[in-house]
Amino acid sequence: MDYLKDQKEKDAIKWMNQAAKMAEKALCFKAKCGTVIVKDGEVIGEGYNAPPLDREENRTCDKEFGFGKPKYDRTCCMHAEWRAIMDALKTNPEKIMGSKLYFTRVDNGGKLKKSGKPYCTVCSRMALDAGIDKFILWHEKGICEYDTEEYNRLSYGYVHENRI
Predict the structure, then answer these.
(1) How many CA atoms lie within 13 Å of 68's alpha carbon, on the beta-carbon side?
(2) Which of 51, 98, 124, 164 is the most exposed place for a label (fewest CB within 10 A)?
(3) Where would I find the H helices in the chain?
(4) Under a CB-based contact definition with an 8 Å cutoff, are residues 139 and 115 in contact?
(5) Alpha-carbon gap, residue 153 to 148, rounded angstroms
(6) Which fold would CATH assign to domain 2-52+75-159?
(7) Residue 152's closest CA among 123, 132, 130, 131?
(8) Rounded Cα–Cα distance for residues 51 and 78 (Å)
(9) Residue 66: pLDDT above 50?
(10) Residue 68 above 70 pLDDT?
(11) Alpha-carbon span 27 to 61, nearest angstrom
(12) Can you give the C-alpha Rg of the chain in angstroms?
C-alpha cells in the first residue's frame, strides 16, 4: 500500500469526489457508499449501494432473519463496488484490466467520510477477478492505494482478526 502524494494525490481527490457524488445517490438505510472505476483518466464504471434493481420490494434490511451475517453481508443492498464493476464490464469491458477502483462513503449531509481497513472479501475478490489493478481508500492518514491482491489479503485478515 502507498499513501499518495503530490499530483497523484490531487488526481485521487478528484476521483474520490466523483465517488462521493455517486454515494449521494445511495438508497441504503445503513450507509451511503459510492465507487468509480477509472482507466486512463476516464470513469469506466460507477456505482452506489442500494437494494437490487433499486426496488423497495427487494429491501430486506428491515426484516429480522435471526442469523449472524459477516460485517460485509449485513445489508440487503448491492455494494457500490459490485455495481461499478458490473457497469464497467457492461460498458467498457476492454478497459477494466489495469484500472483503479475508488471507494468512499458520505454522511447524510453528503460530506465525505474516511474509510477504515479493507474488510469486504466479496468486493476484493470481484475486483481481483475483474482485473482491477488498484483499490483506493481515503483513510485518516491520507489517500491509500492498494494493489488489489494486497487488498484481498488484508480483507481476509480483517475477517479473521475480528472473529476472535
Answers:
(1) 3
(2) 164
(3) 6-23, 80-91, 121-130, 148-161
(4) yes
(5) 9
(6) Cytidine Deaminase; domain 2 (3.40.140)
(7) 123
(8) 6
(9) no
(10) no
(11) 12
(12) 15
Q: Which three cell numbers stand for residue 87?
A: 457497469
Q: 104 pairs with which residues across the strands? A: 34
**164 — pLDDT class (breaks 50, 70, 90):** very low
pTM score, whole prediction: 0.90
Amino acid in position 113: K
pLDDT digits (tens, 9 = 90+) for 74-109: 567 899 999 999 999 999 999 999 999 999 999 999
Extents of the domains making up the chain: 2-52+75-159
**Sequence-ordered list of residues with C-beta below 8 angstroms from that of 50, at least 6 positions apart, any chain:** 25, 26, 27, 28, 77, 78, 83
Report d(CA 158, CA 27) in Å as an integer.
26
- Three-state secondary-structure class, residue 142: strand
Determine contact, residues 146/136, Cβ cutoff 8 Å: yes
* Res 30: pLDDT: 85
Cell numbers describing residue 28: 441504503
**107-112: long-range contacts, CB 8 A cutoff, minimum separation 24:** 107/32, 108/32, 110/20, 110/24, 112/16, 112/17, 112/20, 112/138
